[in-house]
From TrEMBL:
Keywords: GTP-binding, Ligase, Manganese, Metal-binding, Nucleotide-binding. GO terms for biological process: tRNA splicing, via endonucleolytic cleavage and ligation. It comes from Methanogenium organophilum. It holds the Pfam family RtcB. Belongs to the RtcB family. Binds 2 manganese ions per subunit. The lineage of its organism: Archaea, Methanobacteriati, Methanobacteriota, Stenosarchaea group, Methanomicrobia. The keyword Manganese applies. This is tRNA-splicing ligase RtcB.
DNA sequence: ATGTGC
């Protein structure tokens, strides 16, 4: 190890820490150009190469870029939309939820209501959410309240394969499967009234949370470039503690090619979430006579990406490539890329809970800038694998018991519900408690689910 | 996560 690994944990979460995940954090610390620490957020669990909940920052001159530090679902992320509705307005919740389920394509391999042309796909990959807005699926304001305004620079479509393009073209505007979901939530508790006011959140309000990523396009880009970077690691004589850490120097053509293709997938994911936002607003507009302006975006964050950012290291401003895999940017007050009016508060940070448990709205802090390269948890750390969850949990009885506690779940099968059972995940409240107490983000609000649609 | 797996 070139630097120490550092874990953010509590006694309780230490109990769910896997040996494999610890080894993976150590492996990150062996990579060239690793800066200060490899970092584990409290929702850490065993992943491909990097643990999920892992953060690694690398210097531009000596450092590397690794697809294993981003994940297969490039720019898997989450956004939160508010409505003027209260819980009591949702007498027809089940009807509206069914309407959302019918309107938003969910599940593996599903197709969007629009298949975009090759030219449009190029624009989606280079312009991100802006393309969606220009097509009439949202407002300029949506872009202001989105990390990077929904577009990472440096996207180069020449590094995206035909196979990836073919998979991506029919999927923009689809939710996907696994832990991806759309949730109708209610704001239960405000911890920081000033920040909540700035973010446009109040107690009792109905909100919509959307969690999804770059679908088959991002998956294929990851697969394609992993192969190239396995060769590149050998070529540049980078010793790998694990083959899954395939990587290339940030300054190499192979490294630059992955970064530019990764940006294409990240931009696609932002367009995807914006498209789903549009479909959601259409359904709610019809059901409750609301306008788009009645349903503003609180914010949109990515959980799986590597980005070139400036951070202060030992008192010096340094340009780094920050890998966040199952981790969220949590830029504090005075940082670059904050939404309007947030200079004194920091960026909004959205932490989805597992199905049936609370989600949180946090804000970025000075502590994150000082200790974690402006990063915090992402909220969904598994304790049971999918197959373990399916074996030990009955999806049918879970759906029933959630129903009894006022949470409606629409899903394609009992198995898909079992896989995402709250018991298959680390408790979101404990994860958030750790990042709040460590000062790497601060609690703003807690939201409870009342309706879930999932693939 | 994924047109889910050797």
């Amino acid at each position: 190890m070139r630097v120490p690994g550092r874990f953010y944990l509590s006694q309780q979460l230490m109990g769910t820490l896997e040996e494999g995940a610890v080894r993976q954090l150590a492996n990150i610390a062996t990579l060239p150009g690793i800066c200060r620490n490899s970092l584990a957020m409290p929702d850490i669990h065993w992943g491909y190469g990097f643990p999920i909940g892992g953060v690694g920052a690398f210097t531009m001159d000596e450092g590397i870029i690794s697809p294993g530090g981003v994940g297969f679902d490039i720019n898997c992320g989450v956004r939160l939309i508010t409505t003027p509705l209260q819980r009591s307005d949702l007498g027809q919740l089940k009807k509206v939820l069914q309407e959302l389920y019918n309107t938003i394509p969910t599940g593996v391999g599903t197709k969007s209501c629009v298949t975009v042309s090759d030219h449009e796909l190029n624009r989606i990959m280079t312009e991100g959410a802006r393309w969606t807005i220009e097509e009439g699926y949202g407002t300029e304001r949506d872009l202001l309240w989105c990390e990077e305004q929904g577009c990472i620079e440096g996207a180069d479509i020449s590094h995206v394969s035909q196979k990836a393009r073919k998979r991506g073209r029919p999927q923009c505007g689809t939710l996907g499967s696994g832990n991806h979901f759309l949730e109708v939530q209610c704001v239960e508790e405000i911890f920081d009234p000033e920040a909540a006011r700035t973010f446009g959140i109040e107690t009792g309000q109905i909100c919509i949370m959307i969690h999804c990523g770059s679908r088959g396009l991002g998956h294929q880009i990851c697969t394609d470039h992993l192969k190239v970077l396995e060769g590149a690691a050998k070529k540049y004589r980078i010793p790998l503690a694990d083959k899954q850490l395939a990587c290339a120097p940030l300054t190499s053509p192979e490294g630059e090619a992955y970064l530019s293709a990764m940006a294409c997938a990240a931009n696609y994911a932002w367009a995807n979430r914006q498209m789903i936002t549009h479909l959601t607003r259409e359904v709610l507009s019809r059901a409750f006579s609301l306008s788009t302006e009645d349903m503003p975006l609180v914010y949109d964050v990515t959980h799986n990406v590597a980005k070139i950012e400036e951070h202060v290291v030992d008192g010096t401003r340094t340009t780094l490539c920050v890998h966040r895999k199952g981790a969220t940017r949590a830029f504090g007050p005075g940082s670059h890329d904050l939404p309007p009016g947030c200079d004194a508060i920091g960026q909004p940070v959205i932490i989805p809970g597992s199905m049936g448990s609370s989600s949180y709205l946090l804000r970025g802090t000075d502590g994150a800038m000082e200790k974690t390269f402006g990063s915090t948890c992402h909220g969904a750390g598994r304790v049971l694998s999918r197959s373990q969850a399916k074996k030990t949990i009955s999806g049918d009885s879970l759906q029933e018991s959630l129903g009894r506690s006022g949470i409606t779940v629409l899903a394609p099968s009992a198995g898909s519900i079992a896989e995402e059972a709250p018991d298959a995940y680390k408790p979101s409240a404990e994860v958030v408690k750790v990042v709040h107490e460590a000062g790497i983000s601060a609690k703003v609000a807690r939201l409870n689910p009342i309706g879930v649609i999932k693939g």
